[in-house]
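Aim 2 progress update. The chain analyzed this quarter is reproduced below.
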Amino acid sequence: MSTPGQRLQSNLLFKDLSPDQLEKLLGVMEQISFEAGETVMTEGDPAQDLFFIKSGSVEVVKRHPETDEIYVIATIPENECIGEMALMGQENRTATIRTAEPCVLLRLSYDALRSLSGDDREIETQVIKNLAEEISKDLISTNLTVVDTLKQELESAKSRVAMGVIVNTLLTGTVFYVFAIQFVALLSREAADTTFISIPILLFFGGLSYFAAKFSGYPLSTYGVNLYRWKRSLTESLIYTLAGLALIIFVKWLLIRFHAGMAESPLFDVSKNHDFLSATNMVAIVGYILFVPIQEFVARGAIQSSFEKFMLGRYRRPTAIVVANLMFSMTHIHLSPAFAILVFIPGLGWGWLYSRHRSLLGICISHIVIGVFGFSVVGFSAMFG
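Predicted structure tokens:
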């Protein structure tokens, strides 16, 4: 077990003192016992002494000047010192110290330190020197901390501005959608292919999302327009796509087998309403391929990226995925509520893939393949006619 002098020397404030000097220093220190929750020093009181924590631990407490709420800002363990700035002539305590548990403290007043005479004045000199070194190190550390804090605050302010732009964009887009929904619903009953009805909606949301991303202060790569880890992204998207295609075929088979209205439908219905290779169908497919990236940029790039980046909390990622999917599904509700629910399901998977790779490349390809296969090969769109 270490001696009191050795424990004292373990503190940087008393380093380089000889064993004899440590014994003399201990001779002018007063041992005081405290119960848990007792106040050792109070903020604003005169600073006349320091304390070495021989056993136990203490809490550094600050009171909010406006609300009078008390906050514990640090816990100091044994073999550390508190109140050492009293040796530098500081007039008042800058914080309140209270015991977190039963403690034994060694009190050293500045007067007691100065009372050491003759050669022992070297003790005072060494202690003050050690304290000055520690203050210098703390000042450097504090400056670095302040710089880091300012960077974090700047980033936080930047994030709030970006989030404001995104929220305003979403509200504007939602208002537009609510006004347009009835008009679109009327057109969808007359149109042979609703892809052309969806295009103006996608263009509008895509334009708003691009505007929001461009003026958010962050590069477009933040919103998925990048090739980050593209090989891995494509590999995982391929696996997800194959699983999605198999699920589509299985669901169609179940409907044919157990749903009377689809009992006569073929498993693969490429002829649906027109020839698969007809000009009309090819134009619809090309339009779909061109506008899927816009859909994904809006849902995953703009909405999901923003909520993942700017939200706090443990569940911010799944929350962002769900919110983005709700917005994604909402833009399909003019086709039918059932269709809006249907697109929500694969959207969860695309959202998960996007959260893993932060790139739109893989999920756009997956979206295109699943969409074209589901509605032009298997013929799922017949369910929503």
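The beta strands are 30-34, 39-41, 49-55, 58-63, 70-76, 81-82, 96-99, 103-109. The mean pLDDT is 80. These observations will guide the mutagenesis experiments scheduled for the next reporting period.
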